[in-house]
Amino acid sequence: MEISLKNQVAIVTGASSGIGAGVAKSLASSGATVVVNYSSDKSLDKANSILKEITDAGGNGIVYLCDVSQENQVISMFQDVVSQLGTVDILVNNAGIQKDAKFTEMTLDQWNAVIGINLTGQFLCAREAIKEFLRRGIDTKRSVACGKIIHISSVHEIIPWAGHANYASSKGAIKMMMQTLAQEYGADKIRVNSICPGAIQTPINTNAWNTPEALNDLLTLIPYNRIGQPQDIGNLAVFLASDMSDYITGASIFVDGGMTTFESFSTGG
Ligand code: BGC
Q1: pTM of the predicted model, to two decimals?
Q2: CA dihedral 110, 115, 121, 123 (to 10 degrees)
């Protein structure tokens, strides 16, 4: 079966850089019309350049400004996308940030900022997406499912991470939200899954790969011995958004070069 997302509309949050940009390009190259969401005026140019890459390659899309932690902005984004593009078939809940700090030094602002975007943002977007999926119903010319949600989680939904309690907590919570939604809306033919990236070479983790020493340290955590690329995540997003994966829902799929095999246990234990 050929993977085609033709006639489908996908919203990708946080798509002006990193994993979101990679996912947006992959979905567009499979035929979806992609909403390249960006979070502030500062990232407009980057969002436009991702859209240009999409259209230069023959794809379709729009850019859309929305801070996913703000309820009114999320509601407006879904309303505007439905009025401009007809509906939403696929949500990739990607927008995410880190505000790292030792736990006893972590401020409430750092905690709230990360939970606000990484968790509340995914809640707000998933809620509006599911409402739109149910309003539209199944249209088999688009997909045999009524709608697909892909949460971008992390290996840190299962690997504890000292100095990143806010981030790891947000990702652990995404796992339960994803599985609960898959359970609650399975009978409506809405599929909900998570992609759990390991170390992917993006701006969020520059410190982990921008010197040979840092990269060397990082690779000791990755049995497959390379850093991931946004395309690695994009490939799985296309599959999870397509009818090829129609029997997959409620799953966390790790794309991490084996990071979750706990490489440090390869000797000893
Ligand atoms: C984090 C990265 C980190 C990776 C592996 C991701 O979720 O955002 O900063 O490199 O997990 O630890």
Answers
A1: 0.98
A2: -170
